[in-house]
Amino acid sequence: MSYRTQVITVFGGSGFIGRHLIRRLAKSGAVIRIATRTPSKANFLKTAGAVGQIIPFATDCSKDDSVARALQGADVAINLLGVLYERGSQSFQGVHVEAAGRIARLAAAAGVGRLVHLSAIGADAASTSAYGRSKAAGEQAVRDVFPAATILRPSIVFGPEDNFFNKFAAMAQKAPVLPLIGGGKTRFQPVYVGDVAEAVVAALELDSARGRTFELGGPRVYSFRELLELTQKDIRRHRHLLTLPWGTAERLAGFLEKVPVLAPALTRDQVEMLKRDNVAAPGAPGFKDLGITSLATCEVILPTYLSRFIVGGKYSTLTNDTGTNDTGTNGTGTPGAAH
């Protein structure tokens, strides 16, 4: 890969996926603009490249002139913007649809040659989840003005800064039970953040990726129950898995949404998303079509960062929690059962 004479603008580049992608793009020698609302929060990424190669760039993605400045002279644009819940001005419509369409429209106007748009498995105009509908609307907004854009749809992304395994590991440290929403049967295909970053790079290199949509699922499908059990194993905790029927989970989420914190523990829309499997569609273009055949597994990667949740550290000889029981309403009480 060589983009030495090119300029790459990455929207949302200081976020979870962005920080891993920036480090890979920097190896190409390209000048990288990190378009972000708060440039100071992206300063840590400057050391990933040569002096002056990585430039945090103040950008308000709700304004045409600000986005246009970030794209001026750029050869490549990558949109990683996304929110998991709505808070204040950060709405699904504003971030997933309007900002996505604005970036694509102004990228086309600026003569940007390549655009990669990060969406999500579950993007569907008919989804019962507002998140899923907004992701689908965002994809359409991009396609309408930049038909050659490459769209990537990952399943849940895991890595050191993820919002899934870290959340449940932290919960297992303090809570006597973990919530098994809907019985834990929802299936996921977790994908390592480094592999998602490699997919973005591959999408920029392959002409065959233009105008196509790729679904990015990891090497194995797990049930929600299995993922909670795997998390507990890696942090040497064994909490009861309490089954929450959908109605109970929705009522709990309705209460948690009103708690005045920056990140709600659960929202009603997230409960709605859990009602649908989050796996790559059979036959959909994916990693192999991007030339990526070796994918990292949860079993290998999770212990490298979840060890910080182990009491006394990973080399501790403290007695671990024992016993894994299910106190859910299904009444099975079967240790380690997977559905």
From TrEMBL:
- Residue ranges of the region described as Disordered: 320-339
- The UniProt regions of compositional bias labelled Low complexity, in chain numbering, are 320-329
Q: What InterPro entries does the record tag this protein with?
A: ComplexI_NDUFA9_subunit, Epimerase_deHydtase, NAD(P)-bd_dom_sf
- Top-rank taxon: Bacteria
In what ranges is there compositional bias, type Gly residues?
330-339
Gene3D superfamilies of this UniProt entry? Answer: NAD(P)-binding Rossmann-like Domain
Q: Which CDD domains match?
A: NDUFA9_like_SDR_a
Stretches assigned to the NAD-dependent epimerase/dehydratase domain: 8-217
Quote the protein name from its UniProt record: NADH dehydrogenase
Give the taxonomic lineage as stored in the record: Bacteria, Pseudomonadati, Pseudomonadota, Alphaproteobacteria, Rhodospirillales
